[in-house]
Specification:
Layout lengths: L5 E2 L12 E6 L3 H16 L3 E2 L8 E6 L4 H17 L3 E5 L5 E2 L2 E2 H5 L6
Parallel strand pairs: 2-4, 4-5
Antiparallel strand pairs: 1-2, 6-7
Length: 114
């Protein structure tokens, strides 16, 4: 899967390579707007864009925790990013959603949780 953007914070300089972040967004219009804000800020701080999860320094998955199809899509994207990169930050509503008292992301992807 290709990422729509890229990884970590870095100030651009001639001697220091720019870090690259991968980015994926799923779900509702709010998640899309939030993603645009996140991407704009990261670009302003010197982040570069990676065309794939594998080539990114880290992957950000902005999620939706309310629309059933978006929850499935988000969980799939998290799993794919973990498999291809291993360094994933989950933002958005799904990161806070629980299932029977257990964090849903941690329940589906137990190796991702500290």
């Amino acid at each position: 899967m290709t990422a729509t953007s890229t990884a970590r914070r870095s100030r651009p300089s001639a001697s220091k390579p720019t870090l690259r972040r991968g980015f994926c967004v799923s779900g509702c219009p709010k998640a899309l707007v939030d993603s645009e804000l996140i991407l704009t800020q990261l670009r302003a701080e010197g982040y570069a864009t990676s065309p794939t999860y594998e080539s990114a320094d880290l992957v950000i998955v902005n999620t939706c925790g309310f629309i059933d199809s978006a929850v499935r899509e988000s969980l799939d994207a998290i799993g794919e990013a973990l498999a291809e990169n291993g360094k994933v930050i989950v933002t958005g509503c799904l990161g806070a959603r629980s299932d029977k008292g257990e964090n849903l992301v941690a329940k589906v992807h137990p190796r991702s949780w500290p």
